[in-house]
Amino acid sequence: MTSAVAEQPGPTAPGAPLRGLRVAKGHGTENDFVLVTDEHGRLDLDAAAVAALCDRRAGVGGDGLIRAVRSDALAEGAAALAEDPSATWFMDYRNADGSAAEMCGNGVRVLVAHLLREGLVAPEELADGRTLAVGTRSGVKRVAAAPDDDGRPGWFAVDMGPWSVPGGDAAVADGFDATVAVRGLDGVPRPGLSFDLGNPHVVVALTSREELEGADLLLAPEVAPAPAGGTNVELVVPLDAPAPGVGALLMRVSERGVGETRSCGTGACAAALAVRLWAGADSPDVWRVAVPGGALRVTALPGGRVELAGPAVVVADVVLA
Ligand SMILES: N[C@@H](CCC[C@H](N)C(=O)O)C(=O)O
C-alpha cells in the first residue's frame, strides 16, 4: 500500500515514502477521511498513493484524503495567503480515486478537529467566537465552534463563501439547467439545477422518501449536458418545516471521484440552496439537511454566502506498515 517501501527513518525528506507514517481517520456525518499531517509539504502523495490509502479493503479506507499542510509549503497555498495571511493551514483535498477537489465542506471541519487534536491549532484560536482561516483550492474558509441543532456545543460552522448558479438567471427562473438519469427510478431523466460551491453540484428533486430510497447510486447518475470536469449529484426530498423559519430536507449524494457517500457538506449546501430557490421568495434561510450519516445545518447568509454547520470527529490513529 505504500508508494515506495524502503528503509527510511520517516517522512522527513522531499518525496519521502509513507512507510511508518502516522495518519488519522476521521469523519463528519460519516463522510470519512484519511488525515495526513504534512506540515512542510514533503510527502509524495500521488494519485495512486491516495487511492491506495482510501481503499476500504486494502488500505485505511475513506471517501477522501485530507493533507494538512502549511500554506507557505505548497504553491497552491500562495493564493490563500494572499487572500488572508492568517490562513496558515491549507486543506489539500483528494477524492478516494486520487483526484484533487477544490473544496470539501465536511472535510474542512474534520481538518480543524484534527489540527486541534494534534496540538497544531490551540483551542483558544476558536474560543469566544474567534474563527480559524483555512486555505482551500476554492479560497479561504473561516471555521468557528458552533452549537448543534439542540443548542449544545460541539459542532463547527464554516463560512463556505459565495455560491452561484452557473446557468445564471435563466436557470434560476426555469428551476433547472440539466437532466439527470438516475438508475432505479422510472427511467425518465429528471430536471436538475447546477450549483457552484467552489466545487460542482447538480441537485435533483424527487417526489418522496420511497423514491429517494429506491435510487440506485451504485452507478453514478448521468448528467446531460455532461459537465467537463464531472460533478457531484444530490437527490433531495423536501420535508415539512421542523420549526418556524427553518426548512428541512432529505438528501442522498453521489460524489465525483468517489460514488455514493453517507454525506457531503458542499452537497448539503447546494441541496438546501436549490430547495430554497425552488420554494420561492418567502422560504427560510436555515435548513436542516438529513443525510444517511447524520444531520447538517445550512444557513443562507447575506451577500450570497452560505454557512455549513455540523459535527467533526477523529476516531483513530494508524501507523502505515
Ligand atoms: N464530501 C465533500 C466533497 C468532496 C469533493 C467532491 N467529491 C468533489 O469532487 O467535488 C464535502 O463534504 O463537501
Give your account of this protein's structure.
There is one protein chain. This protein is α+β, with helices and mostly antiparallel strands and 321 residues long. It folds into 2 domains: 22-161 and 312-319, Roll (Diaminopimelate Epimerase, Chain A, domain 1), CATH 3.10.310.10; 168-303, Diaminopimelate Epimerase, Chain A, domain 1 (Roll). It is built from 6 helices and 18 strands. The chain has helices spanning 47-54, 77-83, 105-117, 168-174, 209-214, 265-279, and strands at 22-28, 31-37, 64-70, 89-95, 132-136, 139-147, 153-162, 178-181, 190-196, 200-205, 222-224, 232-243, 246-255, 259-261, 286-291, 294-301, 305-310, 313-319. The protein has an 18-stranded mixed sheet that branches.
Give a short synopsis of this structure.
The chain has 321 residues and is of the alpha+beta class.
Number of helices: 6
Q: Helix content range of the residues, please?
A: 10-25%
- What is the molecular shape? globular
CATH class of the largest domain: Alpha Beta
Largest sheet: 18 strands, mixed
Low-confidence stretches: 1-14
Class by SSE composition: alpha+beta
Along the chain, the helix and strand elements come as EEHEHEHEEEHEEEHEEEEHEEEE
β-strand amount:
35-45%
Named CATH architecture of the largest domain: Roll
Domains, number? 2
Residue-averaged pLDDT:
94
